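Morning!

This is the sequence you dropped in the shared folder:
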Amino acid sequence: MKSKFFEYYPISEEDINRIWTNGIFSYDANILLNVFRYSEDARNRVLESIGYFQDRTIMSYQACLEYHKNKRNVTDNLRNCYDEIIQYFNEFVTKLNDGDLSKYRRHCSIDIERDINNPLRSAVKKIEKNISDKRANHDILLNVEELDNRIAELFDGRVSDDFPEDKLNEIYSNGKERYEKKIPPGYADKKNKNENDKRNLYGDLIVWEHLIEISKENDCDIIFITDDNKSDWWEIVKGERKNPRLELYHEFTERTGHRILIYSIDKFVEYAAQHKNKKKASQKVIDEIKDNNVDTSIHWDMSLLTSMQDLIKRSSERYNPDLSLSHIEIPSYLSESLYPNWLKQLGQLPVVTLHDKMQDTFIRPYENIGVKLSDLTSNKMELDVLKNK
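The structure's back. Tokens below.
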């Protein structure tokens, strides 16, 4: 039975060790792109781990192509995020000043200038200075050319050949049917990519076909490392990534006669150290890599959030003492770092939409929403949302 349904059974430790000892390692484009986003410690640890297996590494042509196409965009976004953050906070204060709070200037206990505008302006100035200082040191903290050359040296002579045009056209044709039937990998990209750019649309499938070809040509197993978290690579259970899709295991072995192991980068870094008997990475580095933190040279300044906390806490205690407490945990990266898409992440959270709640706070004081931030100096940050039941 196991021979027919092997993908449903855990692979033995003996087989895992054999694959790690003799197999070929290959990396997705996102693994290399994220290197630019890590802190120096995490960056060095990832590249060091890749270097352990340099003599048994083959990067698929497609993954390497995607790395080069997207590298400039990633590094530009890292540089631009400083100005974006500063602009965001300035616009936030202006919006409060000119519109959202102007209607509450005639309030029996809230002094808009004293209790809101002055603390906010002071907090934003601190944030702006902090971010400006980080921006001034950006090229020192992240030498793009040096890092790019370091990555290029790691994979020098270790990139597979591209497929000929007729093979690519075959992949595109098969890919259309696979995507319609939701056969992994790649179909999850369909909604976000231009269907006229077939090489981009079927990029994940091309990588997959390269991995199969590499296994056949070298008569060996493959260890593939990817930071792609979508459901066409991983089993997603209750919103959490579990094991790789079993269909991938089955197809790979059926077509090559070999096994493939698929790892996220944090698991790869952990297991690489174990396999090579190296000192394991610090938990801080593993957590950063696992959370896919980006640009960890910019640390979250809590001043603005603290000012908001004080404002809403005062109004809540004054008008609605009978409040109940519920807890919402904020992702750890908020207290660790900011990165280009942090605004999108934060935009879904109560603390950033707080200004939208001001009207409820002042007009309907018995339906207040209050925010209290606890453990402000710890690595873990929680929001206590107080609301009237």
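Headline: The first helix runs from residue 13 to 22.

More detail when I'm at my desk.
O.
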